Amino acid sequence: xxxxxxxxxxxENTGLAYAVGDGGLIVVTxxxxxxxxxxxxxxxxxxxxxxxxxxxxxxxxxxxxxxxIKTTDGGATWQILNSGVDVDLRAIxxxxxxxxxxxAGDRGVIIRTVDSGKTWEKLTTATEEKIMDIHFPxxxxxxxxxGLNGTVLKTTTGGMVWFSQSANVQGLVTNTHxxxxxxxxxxxxxxxxxxxxxxxxxxxxxxxxxPLPIDFSLPALYSLDMRHDTMAGFxxxxxxxVIHTEDGGENWEKINSGTTHDLYxxxxxxxxxxxxxxxxxxxxxxxxxxxxxxxxVTVQQ
Length: 301
Known about the structure:
The structure is a single chain. This protein has a domain at 1-118: 7 Propeller (Methylamine Dehydrogenase, Chain H). 0% of the residues lie in helices and 41% in strands. The protein is built from no helices and 29 strands. It has strands spanning 5-10, 17-21, 26-29, 36-38, 47-51, 59-63, 68-71, 79-81, 89-93, 101-105, 110-113, 121-123, 131-135, 143-147, 152-155, 163-164, 178-182, 190-194, 199-202, 210-211, 221-226, 233-237, 242-245, 253-254, 263-268, 275-279, 283-287, 295-297, 299-300. A hairpin with a 7-residue loop joins strand 23 and strand 24.
């Protein structure tokens, strides 16, 4: 049995969301996370990332051994694509349309498609480190990638050239692994999480990344969801950790998640009121009050 929910995608202006996890797990909710049903999957490989570009019927998910799957009917059925690589793919993102997208993962691999996943091109990244997350905030040109051992990469050429921003990260400790990156409004203001329980912030597209003040110790953080205003947001991580900020990360508070399971993904619907968290042991949590209280929900067999 698969035991981890690794990634959640919540649609705008609807209660629809999909989540993927270990063993090829795909689940769907149509009531904003209150109930979940399994979807037939074409793979038994772990899936780590899912996205639906343009909030449309076409969606993609990526996972172990170069696995990329695609749906063209809103997630009802999925087919396996040929990614051309055999490394584990930790992140998959299509910035604007279903035609152009990126996937990234082990050994510094980033691949790109410009034909809706029919073919994939391997890009040059000048790193061998595992990439854990990628984000193209505003267009298909400017993107960021983060990963193990302080890896921070940026492209302004649609992935054709990636350059390192690791030297721009203030107070970066050796062997720090960066786990997630998110630019909530544009390609200037961004946040990163780490396996050491820290959150880094940039106001200027990564020219400077500075650690945000957190006055309590935390285990590894794995996912973050910041509001479009760049002020309010949440991070989740190991041991049931949920933290919340209302001022862009200058102050944080712990939120009781009601679980000690590791939490890997958090997403809010656009109203900022209803949120979903996924994690270990098929953990799915829902909040209906802006993230202050979370209740467990289950996947229907």
